[in-house]
Specification:
The chain is α+β, with helices and mostly antiparallel strands. Among the domains are: 63 residues, no CATH class; 115 residues, no CATH class; 98 residues, Acid Proteases (Cathepsin D, subunit A, domain 1, Beta Barrel), CATH 2.40.70; 44 residues, no CATH class. Helices cover 34% and strands 12% of the residues. The chain is built from 15 helices and 17 strands. Strands 13-12-6-7-15 form a 5-stranded mixed β-sheet. A 3-stranded antiparallel β-sheet has the order 3-4-5, with helices on one face. The longest helix is centred in the first third of the chain and has 29 residues.
Length: 514
């Protein structure tokens, strides 16, 4: 009686080398003689695989070849030798994803099968293992090891550290849950300020969005949350409800901010502590109002990651130009939205107290329509470049930077105001009045503005074909009758512009419509 069973080989999903290895073990355990290896293989390989063998050995029959020749022939057909460079490239791209370290090691060994590292296999496995680990903490610990660290020891140390991090996170969460049980009244008292009678606002450090949250212990692995109004617990691993931390699928995830195992970034205790410190001042100011406006408490909602589209205005510095005002150089901010030039009352007291203030000739308004009444105005001598004039300068209480508006920009001939009038479009007319500089450019390169398509004049383009290429002539696709007039008009336009040209016959033809 034979030991074991060999099934038919699956050409689509099976691996020929693995099938042959099992076949040879079957020969060994059942003491099959060498002259019976080929008949046994043909008898068990199946109809589909036998047909492939017959096609590969044609015109000979499979029985005319040896067992080793059949195995090599099928292997070369189903498993051709891959490129070593390509396999090594794929090996170097291997990084740990959501799988554990044990699965990552198995994937690395699988990727290194055809890399032909030979004696350097363990060194390459060790290097790629350390570089591809997802946890920065484990990688840093491995970097601290000696240079003679082997691949086996690196895997052993890394898996030990991974297990220790997971256990530490579980312990921290358990401690946070225990500390959170008896703090319902105390936490609400600490994080609430009675600003108007019975109105209580819970400030847990998340701005107006977190008015209903109370945090428990600040464990490294994250702690369960509960709402201030009831006893419903929220998972410390993801912040969701309806399940406990012990059953949360994110227990094995790593925080992307501090690389702590056991929770997501949106519920990271250390990140929440930072936000709490930054927002606490604003919250107490909000809660300290004495008006009767009610501040609604918002329900629990998931935290946002980050405002990736945050616009920092400090990246755009002010545009200033130096202007001489009564022989004093002022660095004035260019503001084409302002009609006049302005300085603050502090600047006036520092540099121009000897000039008496005159009553302002006009009043100003902000963008939202709020009135702005100047303290007064002066008429100093202003010089920019070679232009010198006596112009009005308005003094604004509590102002900041000196501002130069359209009045001074135009009178001092700075050239900035002229940019606004670069293209002057007259109403009801298509004529465009350009300034002299742009008109000169248009006259110099008038062929670019004549309309229509341009023509490449850099040289003659050539199409290079492979030697022995045979011309291909495709039959034209049929065109619906309703579109023929439009297509004919477009072809006539292309012919008129010189894009295409008419020929009597051609060896080449694409599938154009007819």
């Amino acid at each position: 009686m034979s030991i074991g069973k060999i099934k038919e080989f699956d050409i689509k999903n099976g691996t020929w080398s693995a099938y042959i290895e099992r076949m040879e073990m079957y020969f060994k355990v059942n003491n099959v003689k060498s002259e019976l290896h080929l008949p046994t293989l043909i008898a068990t390989v199946g109809d589909e695989a036998y047909e492939l063998i017959t096609n590969l050995t044609s015109p000979k029959k499979p029985s005319e070849l040896t067992y080793d020749e059949i195995v090599t022939l099928v292997k070369d057909h189903l498993q051709p030798a891959p490129s070593v460079l390509a396999e090594r490239y794929r090996f170097r791209q291997k990084r740990q994803g959501s799988e554990c370290l044990s699965d990552y090691v198995a994937e690395l060994k699988k990727a290194a099968r055809f890399c032909k590292f030979e004696s350097a296999l363990n060194d390459n496995l060790r290097d790629q293992f350390v570089c591809g680990i997802k946890s920065d903490e484990i990688r840093q610990r491995l970097f601290a090891e000696d240079d003679d660290l082997s691949f086996t020891n690196a895997v052993k140390k890394a898996t030990t550290l991974e297990a220790a991090i997971k256990d530490s996170a579980a312990v921290d969460v358990s401690a946070g849950t225990a500390n959170n049980v008896g703090t319902t009244a105390g936490a609400d008292a600490v994080h609430a300020i009675n600003a108007a009678g019975d109105r209580r606002i819970n400030t847990s450090g998340y701005g107006g969005r977190g008015g209903n949250r109370t945090r428990g212990a600040r464990g490294r692995g994250g702690s369960p949350w509960r709402s201030a109004g009831g006893g419903a617990h929220h998972c410390g691993g993801c912040g969701g409800s309806g399940h406990t931390y012990q059953t949360c699928k994110f227990r094995s995830y790593e925080c992307s901010r501090y690389r702590r195992m056991g929770h997501l970034r949106r519920v990271c205790p250390e990140l929440m502590t930072e936000k709490s410190r930054a927002d606490q001042t604003n919250f107490h100011q909000l809660c300290g109002k004495t008006d009767k406006d009610k501040v609604d408490e918002l329900p629990l909602e998931p935290l946002q990651e980050e405002d990736f589209h945050h616009l920092c205005l400090r990246d755009y510095p002010l545009v200033r130009i130096p202007v001489s005002v009564n022989n004093r150089i002022l660095s004035m901010e260019v503001d084409t939205g302002a009609a006049a030039a302005c300085i603050s009352s502090e600047t006036y007291d520092t540099y121009f107290r000897d000039i008496p203030l005159l009553p302002p000739a006009t009043n100003f308004t902000f963008y939202d329509g709020t009135p702005l009444n100047p303290v007064g105005m002066i008429k100093p001598k202003v010089r920019y470049g070679v232009t010198e004039k006596e112009l009005e300068l308005f003094v604004i209480k509590d102002g900041k930077y000196p501002i130069i508006g359209r009045h001074w920009l135009t009178e001092l001939k700075t050239g900035i105001a002229e940019l606004v009038d670069c293209h002057n479009l007259s109403v009801g007319s298509t004529n465009v009045q350009l300034n002299n500089n742009i008109k000169m450019l248009c006259d110099r390169y008038k062929e670019l503005f004549e309309g229509g398509l341009g023509r490449y004049t850099g040289g003659k383009a050539t199409l290079r074909l492979r030697p022995g290429t045979v011309p291909v002539f495709h039959r034209a696709r049929p065109l619906p009758y309703a579109l023929r007039a439009r297509v004919d008009a477009e072809l006539d336009a292309m012919l008129r512009d010189g894009i295409i040209e008419s020929v009597d016959c051609s060896d080449w033809a694409s599938r154009w419509y007819r």
